[in-house]
Amino acid sequence: MKTFMFAAWSAFIGAIATLTFVAWLSPASVAQEPASESPAPTISAASEKSFSLDEIAKHNRLEDCWMAIEGNVYDITSYVKNHPAPPSVLQRWCGKEATEGMRTKGYGADHSKTAWEMLKPLRIGVLERNAN
Ligand code: HEM
């Protein structure tokens, strides 16, 4: 019985040691994945699309709504139906430089951090420098 207990204990310790070793190895491989997967994770001036205000102005409907906010350009169309305020509130900012709308909600209160986070995946490029 003692021998069996010793064998079982050794197997258990061996398993723990193996798992610890594997866990020690894995962060390196995880860390490499994003680099090989995502071609353009951050703002890169060279590869980024830039839009003029004229181009943005073509997307001035709720069914096709782009906004320029603080130098970036966003396609808000997919979010319009989920926005908590009535669509008319958004509509007047579609196709425009809408930083004021985003920062004030039309009555002087900035959107929450969560709202600003929601913008990020909707980003399609930057506002052209000296845009007019
Ligand atoms: C630029 C024009 C916009 C205007 C004028 C505007 C206005 C408003 C108003 C009036 C409310 C409801 C009242 C309130 O919560 O105090 C609201 C709430 C909200 N809006 Fe907007 N909105 C705009 C754009 C956006 C965009 C582009 C997003 C996200 C992609 C967004 C996300 C939200 C969220 C998450 C809320 C809930 C409250 C909060 O988190 O601040 N809004 N907005």
From TrEMBL:
Q: Which Pfam families match?
A: Cyt-b5
Q: Does the keyword Iron apply?
A: yes
Please report the stretch or stretches of sequence annotated as the Cytochrome b5 heme-binding domain: 48-128
Provide the GO MF annotations for this entry: heme binding; metal ion binding
Q: Name one GO cellular component term.
A: membrane
Question: Any idea which UniProt keywords this protein has?
Answer: Heme, Iron, Metal-binding
Superkingdom classification of source: Bacteria
Q: Write out the transmembrane intervals.
A: none
- What range does the record give for the signal peptide? none
Q: Output the SUPFAM superfamilies linked to this UniProt entry.
A: Cytochrome b5-like heme/steroid binding domain
Q: What InterPro entries does the entry give?
A: Cyt_B5-like_heme/steroid-bd (IPR001199), Cyt_B5-like_heme/steroid_sf (IPR036400), Cytochrome_b5 (IPR050668)
Instruction: Cite the PANTHER family for this sequence.
Output: CYTOCHROME B5 (PTHR19359)
Q: Which family does it belong to?
A: Belongs to the cytochrome b5 family.
Protein name as catalogued: Cytochrome b5-like protein
* Organism ancestry: Bacteria, Pseudomonadati, Pseudomonadota, Gammaproteobacteria, Pseudomonadales
